[in-house]
Design brief:
By secondary structure, this protein is of the alpha/beta class. It contains three helices and eight strands, in the order E-H-E-E-E-E-H-E-H-E-E. It has a four-stranded mixed sheet with strand order 1-4-3-2, covered by helices on one side. The longest helix is centred in the first third of the chain and has 12 residues.
Length: 147
Amino acid sequence: MPRGDHAAYGIVGAMRLSMVLDGRDLPLLVRFWTAALGYDAVFSLPDFEVLRPREGEPPGPVFILQRVPEAKAGKNRMHVDVHPPLDLGVPALVERLEALGGKRIGAPVTDLLEAIDSWWQVMADPEGNEFCVVADQGHPPPEVTTP
């Protein structure tokens, strides 16, 4: 679709985006994802928890946690990238999320560090859903630890 030609396709205005993540322990996931995203929990039903950006923060998609009976199986086909502000930084956010039950997956990924000054740490939430904590331009490079 050419840019600006939304009306030709019956689309009026911008689309609203919500992200939905399946999980079993919604209270655990609410604590984790509100910290990861800097969001507030704003609405609750027995099988759904709705999170959104905090008042005064830049707009972002609504993040919905949906209760499902089964555990996660296999790799995510889509994942969330969390971009912490420079004053917080990736290492501090990773440590905060580990304290809430998140886990690092491998070493920091630096494939694009030289090309676009960006790197990321792959993580999993307490139920194994993968996501990345991304260091945008201006963040210091990851610390290299040698055994």
